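Lab manual, section 2.4: Encoding a predicted structure.

Procedure: take the sequence of the chain (362 residues), apply the prediction step described in section 2.3, and record the output as structure tokens. A sample record is shown.
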Amino acid sequence: MYPQLEIHLDRIRQNLDAVCRITKEEGHCKTLAIVTKGVCADPEIVKIIISEPRVDYVADSRVKNIASYADLAHEKGRKTMLLRIPMPSELIEVVRYVDLCQISELQTIRLLNREAEKAGKKQDILLMIDMGDLREGLFFKNREKIHQTVDEILTMENINLRGISVNLTCYGAIIPKNDNLSQFVAVAREIEEQHGIRLDIVSGGNSSSIYLIGKGEMPEGINNLRLGESFLLGNDTAYCTKLPGTTDQAFILRTQIVEVQQKPSLPIGEVGVDAFGQKPYYEDRGIMKRAIIAIGKQDVDLDSLTPLDTEIEIMGGSSDHVILDVTKASRDYKVGDIVEFTVGYGSMLKATTSPYVERVYK
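Recorded output:
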């Protein structure tokens, strides 16, 4: 059945080995978290991650994904990490399946303490610090609030403050630099000094931080990274460069053509908005040969699809259709033919979440 997402497990292993080598050998990270959310915790990829001895944490933003592999991870000596700050409604599941939880709201930490007490567990947490990307975390300039929060956490009998964590790039697109991560390390040292504690983990971000290791600019004191896209697609997400020893072709999307027609390039009639409320722009290219493939925005992100046939151009799409310009293609495309694409993060994320995309392992 099509569409298919071909998952090349040998290339996944290659990428995982590369990022483990970069972070643990060149970057001197004490611990490494590998993130499964980009592939919706695909079980075959999870097995590869859990079998890698240099991986310390298997991480995801969804508790449901973590629950699917928590037992296997623990059997192999790996711990689980929750990336998204938890909802109060899911704290019972957090205590049950999550070893290390990123969190920022004191109210939620209080509730988590109660649930951990009920379960007879001491819950490890990382306190999120916002260094300017303006997503989650206590704002780094408000030191008083940070210290007040730490003060109360240290009184909780069922919460163990393992360290602090920062997220950059995902919302505000702020790139990790030696400067802002050095300030983040300074927050960690200040917490240790003021509260007389030691923080085991100073987690310096995601795949947008890894490039600093190669440049020799990762601040001393950062001892953990949380990596998803860099091992799945081989990307440093700060500058979209390829990491040494990785490939961007671990995933190949295979789609089938359902229509091929010669049509004008400009729609006829008054232009309104499309199915997603956007008003499209069309360029007049005359009559073109247009192929429709049976996949759509429900399954992929068109901006992160790249045809392997460089003579094909993606024109656009709707929920269930993607329209291709095959006018200049050397191949005479017909109904039933297969068109292949490499995928970026957005398409990989959607395709592995969509129940309509078949997975094929190579």
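Check your result against the sample. The longest strand covers residues 251-264.
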